[in-house]
Structures are given as structure tokens and as C-alpha cells.
Design a protein that fits this description.
The chain is α/β, with parallel strands linked by helices and 457 residues long. Helices cover 45% and strands 16% of the residues. Helix 3 packs across helix 4. Bound molecules: pyridoxal-5'-phosphate.
């Protein structure tokens, strides 16, 4: 499969290129030049596959000669062998509503599903090219832990994770800072998530620095994450679709997870609507319901993994909406940067064919956790509650699957506020409360961060 950048569709890249680079040099996002849907017959043949076999069928066309299908199959099986449920994910029924639990991986959030695979993709690559890779990533809480677990102890590879000091939940922090592997470096930045993200971008943009350390990235714009996430849309469809098109509700921040659903639809899966569920950082809800894509200041909420105003992956959708015209997309991204972009009626119509949206504020989120616990004796995390609440507000509970993105024990404060109960860590992870934490506290200063990285490798 050939890949291009959303801002220049003339230059062709291989999967290996785009996997290792993450972001295109022109600032655009990598996507396939074209996506060929599976035929009805092919999709029908996927019906009874195990999660791992299904993953191999869906991922294989995207990776070209990066590895053989046999290697891919064994790598998938290795990636998911430590999940706490047999088929990677679980589907739970809450009355009419189906909940797709994606949090049974090692760090209790959906991000493990893609990240475990990516960790092994790096390892595979390093079997052939032994030039040491340094991965630098910013996290608002869940990405960092998933990356660390996926990359800890891997040969010829270091991982540096920047998190905003004191702005993530203690469980989220401990899952990162109690890792004892010598190739893992945690940095607490005195600033917010945007500061962390800007530091990483500045390091990437400093070509001399990034080349000298052979820098790579695993944030949510990496295309490999999108394909790994498309798999569970298929899996859910085969389990509960009953031959009818399904809608999916997705708690959304960076537009990555829901874009994977859009990709599944492009691959031929009968998906009706994709529901963008946001907290009060509602740029995507304003955009999809009325075309208003103006950025506001990020607010802290009880769903911190969605406290985002720049939904990077949205660019991939806009490229499609603009009929795959990379010049137009490039101009449009400049408008977005200057905060002068409004989606016009025609484009909005195209978006609304596939997407609808809703927003829950913090009180509504807490109320929803309580309501679900009262009615179904099930505790859901606050992000999942936003996904469920959106479906209820829209009144489309029938034939709808909500993606449950994190284990409730990751966000104990919200759970206590809602139902006055403590949600415990799974036994296999209790150790994080006992082990000593290790991280470096640095000010929001690019020179200091670069120096720390240089001195550590
Ligand atoms: C990252 C994350 C999200 C948002 O996913 P995006 O791909 O950024 O839209 C939602 N819920 C949880 C728990 C997350 O960790």
C-alpha cells in the first residue's frame, strides 16, 4: 500500500517510512493513497475469526513488505498474550446498549491495544536495522503508560515520556513512574499537556537534534495505531451486529479512536453513524453539529484524556471531505491554526453523513456513572459515561455500541463522587502502589529537556 501526506499527495511513502516517522515533514498526517474496501464475501469470511486472526486479516494489507503475514500473526499473538480477557476485548450488555470494553490490557485503557502491537513492530524493525531509536512522547495520562509498557526492556530503544506535573491522576502517574526498566525515562514538566506536546514537537522540528538521536514518535497520529484500532469495530460488528448496520459512540479527544471507526467503514464494514462524544472541551461537538471549529482554552475536567482542543486526526477527515486535495487541505490547516476556519454547509453535510455528536458536562458525567450503576450494577469510567450519555441524549440506543475506553479504577475520584465507592486496581497491578516512583522534574524549557535526553542515552 502506498502512503501520502494530507498536505502533499505527490510524494509516495512505504509503511515502514510512515511508521517510523509518525508525522510528515510538511506537518501533514500520513494516510493511504487509496483504501480498497473488502468485498461483502471477504467480510463474511471474517465472521467467525478469533480477535487475533481477524486483526491479521485487517492489518496485513496495510503493512506491505514491512513483515510477512506469518510474522504478523505471531507478533499479534505475542502482543495480546498478556491481556486479562481471552479475545482482547469484551462486550457487555446494559439493557439495549452494548458496551465494548477495550481496557483489559496491561495499563487499563484502550491505548494498549494499538501500543502493544507498535512496541513489537519496533522490535521487528530493529532486528534488521540496529541503529538505536529514541522515542519521545507527550501524554495527558494514558498514552504514556501504554507506551512504557509496550516498549520497556526492548533492545536498542529508549522511551522518554513527558507528562504535566500534578495534572494526571495518581494511578495514571504510578503506572508510568514505577516501571523499573533501564530504557524508560519519565519526565514531569512544570506545565500543562499542551506544553509537553509543544516540547516534543519542538524536538522533532529541530532536525539536527532529532536526527542525531534517531528520534521516533508513538502519539495518536501514528497511522499504525489507527489500523490496530479499526480491528475492534469489525470484531464488535460480528459479535452483536445481527446483520444490521451498527452505530458506534466514541469518547473523543484527538479524533484517533473514532477515525479508526471511519476507516472500518471505508473498508466496507456496515456502520451507520459514528457518534463523537465530548466533554465540555467541545470543539468537535460544535464543529460536527454546526460547523464551528473555533479553538477555546482547554478546561480541566473529570475526563482528562479528552481535555484537548486540537484534535490532530481531524485533518485526515478534512482531507477526505476536500476530495483528497492536499493543496486545499494545506490552506485549510493554516486557517485552523489562525483560528479563522468555519466548516461550510456543503462540507458539513458530507461530515454529517457519517458523524453525529453530543457533549456531556462534568455533572452529567457523574450523574451518568451513578445512573448506570443504579440500573445495571456496573461501574463505568467517566470517559465511557460520556460515550453512553451521548447515545442517550441522541436517543439512538438501539443497534449502538459504546466504546468503553478505560477501566474505572484509573479515575477513582470521579467514581467516588458518583457512587461513594472505591474502585480497586486489578490484583496484577496492585504493585504500583508499593513500588518507589522514579521521574525527573524539569521546567518547561526545551534546552533543559534536550540536555536531559542527551545525557540519558
Ligand atoms: C485517549 C483516550 C480517549 C480519547 O481518544 P482519542 O483517540 O484521542 O480520541 C478517550 N478515553 C480514554 C480513556 C483515553 O485514554
Amino acid at each position: 500500500m502506498e502512503y501520502i501526506s494530507t498536505r502533499n499527495n505527490q510524494k509516495i511513502f512505504t509503511f515502514k517510512d510512515i511508521f517510523l516517522k509518525g508525522l510528515a515533514d510538511d506537518g501533514g498526517l500520513f494516510i493511504p493513497k487509496s483504501v480498497k474496501p473488502f468485498s461483502k464475501e471477504e467480510i463474511n469470511n471474517f465472521k467467525n475469526l478469533s480477535y487475533n486472526d481477524l486483526a491479521a486479516e485487517i492489518i496485513n494489507p496495510f503493512i506491505g513488505d514491512f513483515m510477512s503475514k506469518d510474522d504478523l500473526i505471531s507478533l499479534i499473538s505475542k502482543s495480546y498474550s498478556n491481556f486479562r480477557t481471552k479475545n482482547v476485548v469484551n462486550i457487555n450488555k446494559l439493557g439495549n446498549l452494548k458496551v465494548l470494553e477495550l481496557f483489559h490490557g496491561p495499563t487499563l485503557a484502550f491505548k494498549d491495544i494499538a501500543m502493544q502491537l507498535i512496541g513489537n513492530f519496533y522490535e521487528h524493525h530493529l532486528n534488521f536495522e540496529q541503529k538505536k531509536i529514541n522515542i519521545v512522547v507527550a501524554t495527558s495520562g494514558d498514552t504514556g503508560a501504554a507506551a512504557i509498557d509496550a516498549l520497556k526492556g526492548k533492545k536498542n530503544l529508549n522511551v522518554f515520556v513527558l507528562h504535566p506535573n500534578n495534572r494526571i491522576s495518581p494511578v495514571q502517574r504510578k503506572l508510568m513512574t514505577t516501571c523499573e526498566a533501564s530504557n524508560v525515562f519519565n519526565i514531569a514538566i512544570q506545565g500543562n499537556f499542551d506544553d509537553c506536546q509543544n516540547l516534543v514537537k519542538a524536538m522533532f522540528n529541530d532536525e539536527k537534534f532529532s536526527k542525531s538521536i534517531n528520534m521516533s514518535g508513538v502519539n495518536s497520529i501514528n497511522w499504525a495505531r489507527i489500523i490496530a484500532q479499526a480491528v475492534y469495530y469489525f470484531y464488535a460488528y460480528f459479535k452483536v451486529g445481527n446483520g444490521q448496520p451498527l452505530s458506534f459512540s466514541v469518547p473523543t479527544g484527538n479524533f484517533g479512536d473514532i477515525y479508526a471507526g471511519y476507516l472500518a467503514k471505508k473498508l466496507g464494514l456496515p456502520i451507520d453513524k459514528l457518534v463523537v462524544a465530548t466533554n465540555k472541551n467541545d470543539i468537535l461537538h460544535r464543529a460536527i453539529s454546526g460547523g464551528d471549529y473555533s479553538q477555546k482554552k482547554v478546561m480541566e475536567t473529570n475526563t482528562p484524556s479528552m481535555d484537548i482542543q486540537i484534535a490532530s486526526n481531524f485533518e485526515r477527515l478534512l482531507y477526505d471531505v476536500k476530495d483528497c486535495n492536499s493543496e486545499v487541505t494545506k490552506d485549510l490547516m493554516i486557517k485552523i491554526k489562525n483560528n479563522t476556519y468555519k466548516i461550510d454547509t456543503e462540507d458539513l453535510g458530507k461530515i454529517q453523513k457519517n458523524f453525529i455528536s453530543e457533549m456531556l458536562d462534568e455533572n452529567e458525567t457523574i450523574e451518568m456513572i451513578k445512573k448506570i450503576n443504579d440500573e445495571h450494577q456496573t461501574v463505568v469510567d467517566p470517559h465511557t459515561a460520556v460515550g453512553i450519555g451521548a447515545v442517550k441524549k441522541l436517543g439512538i440506543e438501539k443497534n449502538c455500541v459504546v466504546l468503553s475506553t478505560a477501566h474505572p479504577c484509573k479515575f477513582p475520584k470521579a467514581i467516588e463522587d458518583a457512587i461513594f465507592k472505591t474502585e480497586n486496581l486489578p490484583n496484577s497491578l496492585k504493585y504500583v502502589n508499593e513500588r518507589k516512583e522514579k521521574f525527573e522534574l524539569l521546567s518547561n524549557d526545551i534546552q533543559k529537556v534536550k540536555k536531559y535526553v542527551m545525557n540519558s542515552i
